[in-house]
Amino acid sequence: MKVNRENVVGEALDLLDEVGLDAVSTRRLAKRLGVEQPSLYYHFRNKRELLGAMAQAAMAPHAAAPLPRPGDHWRDWFLENTRDFRRTLLMHRDGARLHAGSMPGGADLDRIAHKMQFLLASGLPEQDARMAMLAAGRYTVGSVLEEQADTALAVGTDHPVVPTIDNESAFEAGLALMVDGLAQRVAAWHQDPHHAPDAGPTNLPDPTHTPPRP
Known about the structure:
By secondary structure, the protein is mainly α.
């Protein structure tokens, strides 16, 4: 196999699915690729850089999702965008752990800016739009972290683990509460921008610079 950056990342994601994030190592990856461990450092300076590339590759399906169009309703788009983010995190074992703390790159920043402009053009106040994007991203990552942790606990046990919660239904219920609350704030702001509910501090983090992001 000719080793290049792309197939190193692809094999690393396959290894992740087989053994989990804690067991991924450059030694195991080199053995899988049939190369000496130092040869991996030609493509990645260290494991942290490799994990960053893995996180970016794992998010490729979400990065390829259609961007919102002017005729879309912000609520429908926000729901589907968040659901798609969750589906992408679930595609790989420990996908949420891999993604948590990763930083968006150039193309990601352009997509996030497009999404923010869409929300603003749809009539959402800027601070609420920023907080909603940030909250949705962190809510989704947290939900998937718990879901994948439950799955990990079931692996290797002699007795089947009976789920105590329907993860998808619980996620949808929380997401609906979030969007319903946002819709109320938007309605109040349009009725009277001067006396709308306080959107909070003016120095909220910009979702284009604060991971994770939906």
